[in-house]
Amino acid sequence: MESYAALLRGIMPSNPNMRNDKLRAVFEGLGFENVASVLASGNIVFRTADDPADLEDRIQQALATELGIPGGTIIRSHRELRDLIDRDPFEGRTHQPSTYLTVTFFKDTMREADTTAFDTDPLTRVIGYDPAARAFLTVIDNSVGKTPDFMARLEKTYGKNITTRTWLTIQRVVNKMT
């Protein structure tokens, strides 16, 4: 039996169908064990012996059917996330209110290694792409009171089969999986 994290795209806790209790119920209904939520932004951890290749589609179909959630589902195993943390791609930087360390997970692999979409944005520093985790790593400067148009630029460049989490959230997810 393996531990997994489902990183759900587009979850808004103010929507009654997107609350943690309803999300967990869908996962439990699929027969997964040790289902738990991490924060209120679409992070569900669970254990299963099912084939990981089918998990994303099964979960997304159940979320759409039962709760009307059309967004994307991206799955990562405990090992994949733990290995990412152990690699320390942010080289000891600390996530804080003025500096967000972000991880954008791709459903498959990054379409292209081109990160030039962020070259003109002085508030976004590209750390790189981690192929093992299928994740794009960036540091967002929030110290100037202006939020960069980061999410829109990500979607325009790479499409919607992605979801972004802070480094702190990834650490919390991994801690909940153990």
TrEMBL record:
InterPro entries: DUF1697. Pfam families: DUF1697. This is DUF1697 domain-containing protein. It comes from Nocardia halotolerans.
